[in-house]
Amino acid sequence: MRVIPVLDLAHGVAVHARGGRREEYAPARSVLTPEGAADGDPLALALGYRERLGVAELYVADLDAIGGASRQEASLRELCSGAHAWVDAGVATAEHAAAVEALGAARVIVALETLPSLEALREIVAAAGEERVALSIDLRGGVPVTRAPELARLAPAAIAELGAAAGARSVVMIDLARVGAGAGVDLELVRALRRALPEVELVAGGGVRGPADLERLAEGGADAALVGSALHDGRIGADTIAALTRAR
Question: pTM to 2 decimals?
Answer without folding.
Answer: 0.94
